[in-house]
Amino acid sequence: MKLKALLLTAAVSVSTLAFAQESRKSGPPAGNAITGDVYGGGVASNAESKAITVEKLSKKLKKDSKKIENVAVKGKVTDVCDKKGCWLTIQTDDNSQFFVKMKDYAFFVPTALKGKNVVLEGTAERKVTSVDEQKHYAEDAKKPQAEIDAITTPKEEIRFVANGIKVVN
Length: 169
Prior knowledge:
Blueprint lengths: L1 H24 L12 E3 L6 H4 L3 H10 L3 E14 L6 E5 L5 E6 L14 E13 L1 H10 L4 H5 L5 E13 L2
Parallel strand pairs: 4-6
Antiparallel strand pairs: 1-6, 2-3, 2-5, 3-4, 5-6
């Protein structure tokens, strides 16, 4: 009897694990990314009012340090990972972009977030991104092969690890 119970427990565990792994393989979460939607660990109620522009963030990173924790930034989403919704890009005031990953890969966002204005809370830093990593993200974004092949040098950029993301409009 104990053996049957043990086998049943093992079978349920394996099927649960398989289902969990399969759900991670599926695409980004569904959703319309409407104003007020929050993804991740939440965003402080005053985050929108204390959020700084991407331009200010860039200047602060150049002046103060290479890493700033617990910062809120407001910007427009220009791209979302089509595979899982596990990263996005934010457009800056000067039409450049910065890259956002989700803290601990703990949450994903819908592709409907493209074109929306958001407030992000998390950690920002200046980082040199390798050629291989740039190509990986370009492949995730389904960029043309010619554009992927044109990536030949590492790039210094702002990288943001988001604890939470809130759609503001």
